[in-house]
Each structure stands twice: as structure tokens, then as C-alpha cells.
Sequence to fold (446 residues):
Amino acid sequence: MNFRKMGMMTASAMLVFLAACSSGGGDKAAAPAEQGAAPAAAQASKGPVELRVFWWGNADRAKLYDQIFDLYQKENPNVKIIREWTGFGDYWPKLATQAAGGNLPDVFGLHMLLYGGEYSNKKILEPLQPFVDKGVIKLDGWDKAAVDAGKVGGTLYAIPKGITISALIVNNSLIKSAGADLPPSNMNYDQFKDYLMKLKAKLTKDQYAITDVSYNDHGFESFLRGKGKSLMTEDGKKLGFAKEDLKEFWAYWDELRKAGIAPSPQVTAETSGQPAENSMFAKKKLAIDFQPSNYGKIYSRSLPQEDLGIMRFPSVNNAKFKSGENLQAPAWVISNKSKQKEEAAKLVNWFVNDLAPQKIYNLENGIPGTKTIRDGLMASLDPMDVKAVKHMEEISPDIPPTTIRPEGAPKVFTVYKKQLEQYAFGKLNLDQAVDTFFTEVEKALK
Fold:
């Protein structure tokens, strides 16, 4: 989510909206269940087992889960799955209430980037490496970056249901119809700026080359991670970057705003919070957007999919890493109070590693972390999902390990948004806005 949507959230930690996580894929028909590789669930115990499972989504997503868990129960008649779900906004307060009351489900969904730090600190998650060591959970063939996205402090707590990654969503037909060249791959920040200036010269007055990425928390975090830095230190007590880093990022996007390459802060404020079909990108007022890669498919509901491309974001000049995207992992975790931990682990393993449930799930929460499943699904995937998979496979080998945000991150981003707006609207100059940001964050983290 970008910062413009923060006011809509009901809890301070809900600073980021992950479209693949918060919606339920309402117009997606579930694929028929087919048995894939030998199911790990075949080793289920003989006695009766009840497992409570809790996830976020809407009614359409719940239908997918019902099909998946019905299939599991059919293969394992001794297992009964008690199912609970609610919308993304209501999910986190309810989960927090369950955690405080010692009433967590056996298996529940957790957005690791946003809440992995918070819930691992509460000591309520069961470490999963012992199940991997025993072969109950199998991670052979999984991308290392996807596995690492489920770790906090080096401990494996979560198995991703899918991975989403920030990307450039490109309207190729708009760019070509304007008489401009398509953006080349593997650009750095300076090369990207040069390209955007040339593109803007070809567009109409009311069209913009790119969205204002300075308003997007993932954009700033990716910028820092490319430099080998982080938003915050691992303990969450301090910032992980210097004033010069923030000045560089804000000044870059301010230059693009003033040149009319990115929207003015007024336009950004007026157009924020719109559903995808009413966005500037869908209305062809924006040539390039910065969104999770699954937005390619979302935008294809409004624009011809053959017109859309998915690209990695340019690298920071002289960066330590080629790019700094975080893998955003909605994942399964297991309560350490569960009385059926091994059975819970078997269910999680079957869900992510067996082709049958994955065909039903159909990238509902992002891209599978194992190439075996991706290859098994490829023939039936939406073309934009295929592009998203290729994008992930391109960038995952050369990005830094996923950085799980500490509990204080929402406070940091609240101050970030406020001071960015002061700067963008001309109420403070760059030095004043940056100095105020650091002063206010220091107070907020005490």
C-alpha cells in the first residue's frame, strides 16, 4: 500500500495493503482438484484430529479454502478442519484478541513482512525447522529467498502461501502509441530518470510517465535495501539509514514532480484510494505504475493484457544489490499452544507442496515459492500471472534477504508520510523536512 491509503486502516500496523492478500480474487473460478505428487498428508495419524484454521479474505476466497480443505478431509478422513475467516481489516484486531486470550487457532495466516516481527516477539509462534528436519515439511526445490521470507532473526516461523513483489507495471501500448520507446531493462536511477524525461515529452499534458513512488513505503524501503541498508535496525530501536539517504530519495522524486513526469502532490491526493478500475493507470493517464506484481492481472481487467508488461524497478546508483525489493509473504504459521502441531505441519506442507490444492488456489495469495509447483501450474495460469512468475524468478536470486519490519515500523511510516507531504506541498524545504523526520522518529521510538 502507499501512504495515501493509511487513513483508511483501522489499526496502526495496517500501513500496507497487499492486494493479493486483502482481496479474495472475487472473479476467479477455482480450478478442478487434481492429485499431484504423493501427498505428505498420507502419514496422518489414525485417531481423530481437529484443526482450527484462520485466514483473511472475502467470501470468494473462502470458497477456495473450502474446496481445498474438503479435499484434505477426503484424503484424511480422521481430520476435521474448523474454518474461520474475516476481512483483512478486521483480521488483525481479531487475531490480536485471540493471541492475548491464549485462544489462537492451530494454523493461521500471517503477513510476515508486516507482522512477523510483532508475532515472533510475542513468543506464540512454533518454530518450523524441526518439522523440516523430520521431513514433515518439505522445502526441497524452494527458492531460498522465499524460505527466508518466512524467517525472523534466522528462525523459520512461516511457510509462504505465495509471494508478491513490488514491480513496475507498464502500459506498453500507451507508450508505443505516443511514439516513445519501451523502457529498457536493468536501468539504474539516473538512466531511469533520463528515460522518463524522454517519455514525458511524448505524452499529452494530462498524462504522466510514472506514479510518485516517494509516497509508497515499499518504494522507499527497496531504495534503502538496494544500498545494503534497512528501514530500521533489527531490534526496532533505531533507523537503519542516514539523513543523506532520505534526502537523496525525496529530492529525486521532487525533481520528477516539478518536471511533470510524476503527478503533483495535489493530483496524488485527489486520485488516491481509487479502486484499480478507476485509477490513473487504468484511465490511461499514467504510463508506468509501481505496485505488487499481481496488479498486472488486476489491471488486465480494465486494459488488454497484451498491452501490459511487468518490470523490475531500477537499481540505485552504485548499489550494493541489483535491486532491493522485499518479498511480501502471506504465510501459514502454527501456534505454539496447538495440541496438534505435527498434524498442523502436515496440513501446511500439503497445502503448499501438493499440486492439487495449488491448482484450486491458483496464485490467490501470490506466486508459489517452489519452482515445481510453478511449473505444474504454468499451462493453466493467466498470462499476467505468467509474467509475474517470470519477474519473480528474475529478481529473487540477486536481492537482499527479506527484511521483516519491527513493531515500530508503523510509527516511522506515519512520520514519513507527514513530513513528505510538508516537503512536497512546499511547506518545508528538504533539509527542514528531513531533520524534522529524524527528530520526530526518535521521539516516537522511545
